[in-house]
Design goal:
3-stranded antiparallel sheet, Aspartate Aminotransferase, domain 2, Aspartate Aminotransferase, domain 1, 2 domains, 44% helix, binds 4'-deoxy-4'-aminopyridoxal-5'-phosphate, 7-stranded mixed sheet, alpha/beta, binds glutamic acid
Length: 393
Amino acid sequence: MTKLSRRVLEIEESVTLAASARAKELKAQGRDILELSVGQPDFVTPKHIQDAAIKSIQDGSASFYTVASGLPELKDAISQYFENFYGYSVERNQIAAGTGAKFVLYALFTALINPEDEVIIPTPFWVSYADQIKMNGGVPVFVKTSEENHFKAALEQLEAARTDKTKMILLNSPSNPTGMIYSKEELEAIGNWAVEHDILILSDDIYGRLVYNGAKFTPISSLSEAIRKQTIVINGVSKTYSMTGWRVGYVVADSEIVAAISKIVSQTTSNLTTAAQYAAIEALTGAQDSVEEMRQAFEKRLNTVYPLLAEVPGFEVVKPEGAFYLFPNVKKAMEMKGYTDVTAFTTALLEEAGVALVTGAGFGAPENIRMSYATDMDTLKEAVRRLKAFMEN
Ligand code: PMP
Ligand code: GLU
């Protein structure tokens, strides 16, 4: 009889992190593996951000705990960032920072979810949402989208999924893993529907600055006063500033929700690492040139790799507008190679072609596979060459 809790038995390890761990293991054994699995920018954190953290360590400010929800200066930096990029300002008591957007999301679900509460999640979805909801006793309700509708949920689908237990809808635009972006009109329709039925909107905006080829990110929280009141915004510095290792995420929401999250932070991590808070302040308020440089690099990679990937036999791919992932449908490729399970197919690509991707299974997309293009151009081109050779053999 296992001693493990039912809660932990119900969840899986994060497939993105597991895929990356497996690729690293094979590399350590001397195998030639191209790693396009975990989603993180390949750039070193910009120097002015590093310097702010170093300064805080050396002048002693980073030696101590902070308020659980973050330094007042960090909240002011987030507020200023909201004025610049969302077009509205927020009060300190509407902001809580934590150890990565991932942990802030977890604290948020703990703060809001009662057993059996339902959360509507359009699929494909980022791997951690469903398991975090389950860990907190909630019920993820999936609304399926596919390539035909550009991976966007239609209002009728959301309405069909709504019950009297629906507490929240989760939106992630630009999306991990599909890279699609909801338009202003689509968000207005979803926002008004959520207001009408008193359903909270959880808007994960972490890829909001990473949009390409003229695409535009609209924050749903900026659309009207009523929608903003209904919305909880999750954001962070990991993707925009190439700071995944610093573990800085934050939530902007109604002060009652923020106070509840702060309470959870105070009883778990105490506070986000102090030096990382100083780095985040500089990231959010300092020069933004490196953000644009990195964005342009991703755009170039997307525009180069997308047409190459589309030529791989059996791979059908919609061109993404944001984030840094390609999410081809590999149903035909699997048929050609005699696979029925996308996870087994992903393993074959790793073992036989030396290309580490992530199975779509963890994203609620059993016909797709995810490739991160947040890596250098040579690696990307070689990876696609290997995939093509694998399929043509
Ligand atoms: N949301 C989405 C959609 C993501 O892809 C990630 C990736 N890490 C996160 C949240 C969490 O980011 P972090 O914990 O690094 O802030
Ligand atoms: N969000 C990134 C990804 O999807 C990083 C890993 C993770 O947190 O899942 O690959």
